[in-house]
Amino acid sequence: MGGATSELRRRGLPVSVPRRLLSVGNLSLDTDAYRVTVAGEPVELTYQEFELLNLLAHDPGRVITSEALAQALWQTADQKASRRLSVVVCRLRQKIAASSPYQIETVRKRGYGLTDALTRPARP
Q1: If phi over 0 gives left and psi between -120 and 50 gives alpha, with beta otherwise, what is residue 59?
Q2: Within a domain: residue 50?
Q3: Residue 30 placed within a domain
Q4: Which residues pair with 36 in a beta bridge?
Q5: For 9-53, what is each residue's pLDDT tens digit?
Q6: 91 part of a folded domain
Q7: pLDDT attached to residue 46
Q8: Percent of the chain with pLDDT over 70
Q9: Burial of 26 (0-12, 13-18, 19+ CB in 10 A)
């Protein structure tokens, strides 16, 4: 009994590694498998879309500057990276549109955040 498990333990290999799961509202990220679900339904994301969502989801409610996001994703924060970031954000928004209550918010001249649409103050 437990032959394979015993062999793994004897070799010093982990028997089971807990998955790193991150949940924000009905949005879930499996950071080990690079999988995202919204309300239990899988969402296909590119590598860059996943990395962006992962950055935003680690601190929901916080706005991260466009420069910091571009630097984290592409190791540069030039004008080209800023435009590229806008495109990735737009595509990501479309793909996670059903996420609730968290949505990607643009804070003009500042950056982006994954914010709770239900508690976000209305803008004039």
Answers
A1: beta
A2: yes
A3: no
A4: 29, 43
A5: 566 655 555 568 899 999 999 999 999 999 999 999 999 999 999
A6: yes
A7: 96
A8: 79
A9: middle
